[in-house]
Amino acid sequence: MLRRATGLFGRSILAAKSRSFSTDLPAAQTADASFVEAWKKVAPNSEPPKTPLAFMQPRPPTPSSIPTKLTVNFVLPYASELSGKEVDMVIIPATTGQMGVLPGHVATIAELKPGVFSVHEGDKVTKYFISSGFAFIHANSFADIIAVEAVPLDQIDAALVQKGLADFTQKLSSATTELEKAEAQIGIDVHSALNSAITG
Question: Residue 109 in contact with residue 146, Cβ under 8 Å?
Answer without folding.
Answer: no
